[in-house]
């Protein structure tokens, strides 16, 4: 490694196009393509009696109208249940267009294609759908009572039920451990719904090439390879005839990992049927009512602990609201129930969850993916233990930490990847020490007293978490050096703003010893790389980063072998610097990688001067060996995959100081501090940016964001005017410090960082408000009026 | 009914024929092919579609294209100099990692460009206030705030260089 770029705050290579308006987001493509719009259910639960499209037929520019009855073969069937699980006994997914019953407001019923979106919406507004209204089921506890059912064939509205239990070292069950502990507490916690809410919604643009009998689809997705396979399967097309590309994607945060969305199969189908192109761009209201939400849970907690605050037994029962359908399985509650344990070793643990149907938008992962709820549960528990025993909150946490010499640490549970929950590395006591120093934990009582003397109420809080990142099964990388010396890197997973073009180029430039300017990176384009899983679970850097590094090492080895032949040197004596292979210590004996690339591909035809060197009469090859030796391939390229044995576990600890207004109950975050450990940093600037963004979303979840469903299942705040996301005025300055505990599991020693920032924020803010007010905070988000109400009931 | 309109966009006279209901954002994006202006909420809350109308920031999703007839419009595509030299705001956003997915960025750049014209050396508070009508879901605003200060510095340097050159 001669060109040291790994670990440097290299400026982003994506930015040049994005700051000049030359980005290519979904709706920027396909100028003039016919547009689709959807008639969506206005009811949360209803039976479709009749669809009358006659009034829409006269709309100028109308191309086509489709209902479920028009869908052929596999397209008419329910969409895939992406992640089956034995506990998901009653998984249900929707058809691309509603068949008979609609189960949430926003469910697509009719698709219209017209010359442009305005006209398509005109036609939609003229289509009459007659519904028989059925009783909607709203609210997870109401749904669990099962007076009415969301799906007639799902008893109790229970989609899944799962219990995991880890007994104590001496073999006692968690419930036994709680019962017999010196101290016991029982309480209930509530976390509201929120949503990923990327600034760009979903969108699909499909182009059928009738001459080539092939389909090209652009989708604002987090998994283009899997969308491709789903489209081929649903449309009955040979896989090589379908290509899917994720263009510039305007944020994902989880919602775009779900696939195929109804529109992702309907738009390509319509394009093929109509023999041309069709585009659909989701509008904001559609995004609110027909994509996905997350977070909503009710948790019942019982904990038993000793005089030092050590948890002897923890028994958690979770009601998880998964909305009307379960396309993404039960990943969210599995993550909640496993990652709940955080950096702690718990005496005995029992967790049970029921994943419940309601007549609301489906619930699938949003950044953090169940962790914010789990961390809220565990950290509220730690604070309650501290309050009960009169101990400092950091002491209780320290008493329960897994120690640095205890890794790998097996929590005894099965994680979201179906593999054991074994932490690979970490240093939790040091992270807490750094956090206390950063926020000034030990001197806060004086600050609080001084504020009180001035009539101001302030409080401090903290939250700790462990995040399983870089889940498998695999990602791959392909690296090709062409005869112009350029390095072309591709990986199958997609990008939504994480800066992959930059960090993967840093990895490739470092591994190959080439200037970063020579490296270009393509992600999420199935024409370039067909096998991939996707971008979610803080996995892209870990998975594709390592795969690309491994692919680069293959290419490097090949380059050195070819160069060694040309230079008549031993490959072990060669180095690559600035794109030139040379003998270590003898820079004059050298050959540029560009030339190595030429020599790697024995040619019959010279297409330029460089290529002449590799032609058959140039004397470049030895007469006693074939031009391509056995087991070798032409070209200076390599492909490799990274498939980890299990996830790697990052950690973080956050603290905040808040002020609560004695009169208005307004809550202001005065300081926010983050200590973060994601192993080796590839690009500290980008990691910081990820943390900032996560914290801001966490602040939204803690103080502002919720999905206001009424008892009819109508979402009352389905707009940016009413769903309150933080502006610059709502996000405090974020102070960060890094700890680097490398992962022993992967060649680069890295851990994921994408979701980290958001995970503990609700727990931290609740802790700080509780400290300021002296009122238990058991429900998030908390608004000034919520706090006001809590004060009245004190 | 369609209306012929003439707009001066990024210094170029552009003509289009639009229905009365055609939004300015859609006209810029789909009639004129300037897709740098993005639409995030379609009702004036997120600020992604912000463009400069006669130099003032406006939400192009809240304005009909016909209303803009005869006016001058600057979009993100028009912020750089004719020779491609990036504006201070553009340079600062890249330098300070003030963008991630980049979808909201054109709106921020237009807003900040107009703001720094009015206030060449803003305080932290003034910066936060100035960008408080634009939503970003990626960056947590930390580096956007930094970028606005940096843009002010770069603007001052550029002006100083020009004055130097003029002397």
From TrEMBL, chain A:
Record's keyword annotation contains Oxidoreductase: yes
Keyword annotations of the record: Molybdenum, Oxidoreductase
Coiled-coil stretches: none
Gene3D superfamilies assigned: Aldehyde oxidase/xanthine dehydrogenase, a/b hammerhead, Aldehyde oxidase/xanthine dehydrogenase, molybdopterin binding domain
InterPro entries reported for this sequence: Ald_Oxase/Xan_DH_a/b, Ald_Oxase/Xan_DH_a/b_sf, Ald_Oxase/xanthine_DH-like, AldOxase/xan_DH_MoCoBD1, AldOxase/xan_DH_MoCoBD2, AldOxase/xan_DH_Mopterin-bd_sf
Keyword Oxidoreductase: yes
GO molecular function, one term: oxidoreductase activity
SUPFAM superfamilies for the chain: CO dehydrogenase molybdoprotein N-domain-like (SSF54665), Molybdenum cofactor-binding domain (SSF56003)
Protein's name according to its UniProt entry: Aldehyde dehydrogenase
Region named Disordered: 616-637
Record domain Aldehyde oxidase/xanthine dehydrogenase a/b hammerhead: where: 20-135
Pfam families cross-referenced by the UniProt entry: Ald_Xan_dh_C, MoCoBD_1, MoCoBD_2
TrEMBL record, chain B:
Transmembrane segment boundaries: none
UniProt keyword annotation of Iron present: yes
Pathway: Alkaloid degradation; nicotine degradation
Top-level taxon of origin: Bacteria
Keywords: 2Fe-2S, Iron, Iron-sulfur, Metal-binding, Oxidoreductase
Signal peptide: none
All copies of domain 2Fe-2S ferredoxin-type, residue ranges: 3-79
Keyword Transferase annotated: no
CDD domains: fer2
GO MF annotation list: 2 iron, 2 sulfur cluster binding; metal ion binding; oxidoreductase activity
Protein name in UniProt: (2Fe-2S)-binding protein
